[in-house]
Amino acid sequence: MASWLVIASASLFALFTGFNDAGAMISVGLRAQGLGLSTALAVLTGSVVAAPVLIGTAVATTLDGRLVRFPDGDGRPYLLIGVAAAVAVTIGLAGRRLPTSLTLALVGGIAGAGAGAGAHVDWLVVVAVLAAAAAAPVIGAVAALAACRLVGALPAPKGAGRRLRRLHIGAFLASCLAYGANDGQKILAVYAAVTASEPAAYARTPAVLLPLAGCFLIGALLGGRRLARGFGAGLATTNPQSVVVTELSGAAVVLGTASVGAPVSMTQSLSGALVGANLSGGRRRVKWRGVVRLGRAWLLTLPAAFAVGAAGSAALAAAS
């Protein structure tokens, strides 16, 4: 493959990731005082660079090499088809106002591309990823609900407002680090895949990480403000306490799955935690129609991306 096509493909994917993910990541945090949009985007972008260095590349390795093993030969064209399928499905669902997980779409697209090309697809890994994706929002909701009830049972200390704002900043930093350790590693995985290398080889390579982070930031600036207004608004109302609990619970779930190399969407975890945090105030604080709509989008994402990736790879294999 031409080197310019390799670099262009990886850069465009990083840009689209920023466009798609940043709004969801910063939207919850911006609802509490203490952070501005520019600062939030800078911290999130920094996490894309810092997390592979500080935490490792287990999730990127899963996406790059454990899902599909191509036979001898250049499997990069098929991987690019899988990436394109993930982007196309994400855009298609967004066009129908069904926000979804690009990470989940990428897993489906890569697995579908492998199946269409006749490569070995590790279905145990696919099932494990699906199980983690299904469990993440549920665990986030349970953790957030328990945390809110525990906090609510404790007497409010003096200066609680200032402490809550500081805690919010810490919680946002934790959620950004979790994103970089898990969800954000799809950028590194795609770059490693199209350059036929290992993600760990680039974990401490500024010449790779910084340009990818720059593309991510450009995408975030293009789409973050618009998408930030929409995420979470259709799920539940928020207050400063629920924001902090949402961020901490979502970060704990995603960091936990990252430690075992399971790709999990930060959007899914935050959504579940946001619902759980608001359930502590009663079922009426949750907008259940929005929850069902989001769940339906998640259910459609992986099989749709799998089908598109498989069809594209089968067509390429037949033409080769």
Q: Beta fraction of the residues?
A: under 5%
Q: Uncertain runs with pLDDT below 50, 5 residues or more?
A: 153-157
Helix percentage? over 70%
Measured on Cα atoms, how large is the radius of gyration? 19 Å
The overall pLDDT, averaged over residues, is 84
Alpha-carbon distance between the two ends: 14 Å
Can you characterise this structure?
The chain is mainly α and 320 residues long. The chain has a two-stranded antiparallel ribbon with strand order 1-2. The radius of gyration is 19 Å and the shape is globular. It contains twelve helices and two strands. Helix 5 runs antiparallel to helix 6 and helix 5 runs parallel beside helix 12. Helices cover 76% and strands 1% of the residues.
Outline the secondary-structure elements.
Layout: H1 3-29, H2 37-54, H3 58-66, E1 68-69, H4 76-95, H5 102-116, E2 120-121, H6 123-153, H7 160-181, H8 185-194, H9 206-230, H10 240-258, H11 266-279, H12 288-319
Helix pairs in contact: 1-2, 1-8, 1-9, 2-7, 2-9, 3-8, 4-5, 4-12, 5-6, 5-12, 6-10, 6-11, 7-10, 10-11
Q: What is this entry, summarized?
A:
This protein has 320 residues and is mostly helical. It has twelve helices and two strands, in the order αααβααβααααααα.
